[in-house]
Specification:
CATH topology of the largest domain: Rossmann fold
CATH architecture of the largest domain: 3-Layer(aba) Sandwich
Structural class: alpha/beta
Number of domains: 3
Radius of gyration: 23 Å
Helix content: 40-55%
Strand content: 5-15%
Number of helices: 17
Number of strands: 14
Length: 400
């Protein structure tokens, strides 16, 4: 078999448990290159900090297992998954700059470009209705402004964030806690397919890796590493979303938090973040302002096109990429038509007034629709900025 390329070596090293990017950095510094590392003996490997006898033996044995490499590449190809390593020029630049970037990424879809604006929206799996609505609304508004929404494809807040971005016709990226052959949670398979068509789903874990509990905290550093800022929508005091916030702070990213009801368990973590200095978020403008991005009118939703003339700003103040290329946020195309409404949405909208708020019960009675259908339609109308919710779950038509 021909000599392995550096990218093949990185894929093979990624299949060896406990190597990781930090140990790899020490190994490459010690031996000068991946080629020299491939020729080092187990005794030589053990002299490197953090490489004990057991790991040295695993590296020696694993680097010889080219059949394992070929099987992994074949499975990835069969499943329509591409591999991008630290040796590749199109590895995401923001992620490359963190202190422990993944050796390899398994990707369905299109990775972000260096000029793409990315913001993570994450939170509790056991989300409240308020949290789900807030996450979907923020993601929708971010996507309308050309921002790519990053999250973890988990139940609750993550799923709502991905769906909000897709409803706006935007891009969204999801990071998995296991391999593509064991996509988790299984009920998000259809969502993951749609995301791959309009953004990307990625993982640092081998194709057949199970979604083990210990994988998810490490996955969280990838979510924040891909993003210029991280928005925590809901989080209990012991929440994985707070791990993402910690990763973001370590990586020099901006951290945002959405306030919630005082007595809500899933608001305790976000309120603690606010006490510690996270930026309060009540609208998408708070996020764009803190990141130093221009805040144009939302782009047209038709087809998710981002071809309009962008509004640009050189760099992002206070971010790791402040010396990088200009960021682009797409504005609304002038004269664009509003998104089409369903029959139920039209009936609800016709029954609302700009001055007299109506409750859900009153709206259901007037429209003749079932309460679950009314609740769903109201959320969609609010996301489309056609209605406004007032205190006490009262709704009015938005002013033109």
């Amino acid at each position: 078999m021909p000599m392995l390329t550096d990218r093949e070596r990185l894929v093979l090293l990624n299949l060896i448990p406990d190597v990781g990017s930090l140990r790899l950095q020490r190994l490459v510094e010690a031996f000068g290159s991946l080629g020299q590392l491939w020729r080092a003996s187990a005794q030589d490997l053990q002299r490197v900090e953090g490489i004990g006898p057991m790991l040295a033996q695993r590296v020696v044995k694993g680097r010889q297992d080219e059949q394992l490499l070929q099987e992994e590449l074949a499975v990835a190809q069969r499943e329509g998954v591409a591999l991008v390593t630290l040796a590749d020029a199109h590895y995401p630049e923001l992620l490359r700059k963190i202190h422990d970037p993944p050796l390899a990424l398994y990707v369905r879809g299109t990775l972000p470009t260096p000029t793409e604006v990315t913001v993570a929206v994450v939170g509790s799996r056991r989300a409240s209705r308020y949290g789900v609505e807030a996450a979907e609304r923020l993601a929708y508004d971010l996507a309308l402004r050309g921002v790519t929404v990053v999250s973890g494809l988990a139940r609750g807040i993550d799923g709502a964030a991905h769906r909000g971005a897709l409803k706006a016709g935007g891009r969204t990226i999801g990071a998995l806690g296991g391999g593509f052959c064991r996509l988790y949670p299984p009920e998000h398979e259809a969502l993951a397919r749609e995301m791959a068509d309009r953004g990307a789903v990625l993982s640092e874990y081998p194709m057949r890796m199970a979604p083990l509990a210990q994988n998810f905290p490490r996955r969280n550093r990838v979510i924040s590493g891909l993003s210029r800022g991280v928005v925590i929508v809901e989080a209990a005091q012991r929440s994985g979303a707070l791990i993402t916030a910690d990763c973001a702070m370590e990586q020099g990213r901006d951290v945002f938090a959405v306030p919630g009801p005082m007595r809500s368990v899933t608001s305790q973590g976000t309120h603690q973040l606010l006490k510690e200095g996270a930026r309060l978020v009540t609208s998408v403008e708070d996020i764009l302002e803190e990141l130093g991005l221009a805040s144009p009118q939302p782009k047209s939703r038709s087809g998710g096109s981002q071809s309009a003339e962008p509004v640009t700003r050189q760099g992002v103040q206070g971010s790791p990429s402040s010396d990088g290329p200009a960021l682009a946020v797409a504005p609304r195309e002038q004269g664009s038509a509003p998104a089409a409404l369903s029959e139920g949405e039209q009936r609800i909208l016709q029954g609302l007034d700009e001055r007299e708020p109506r409750s859900i019960d009153a709206i259901a009675a007037h429209s003749g629709l079932a309460l679950p259908d009314v609740a769903s339609a109201l959320l969609h109308l609010e996301l489309k900025h056609l209605i406004c919710q007032q205190p006490g779950k009262q709704f009015v038509k938005s002013a033109p």
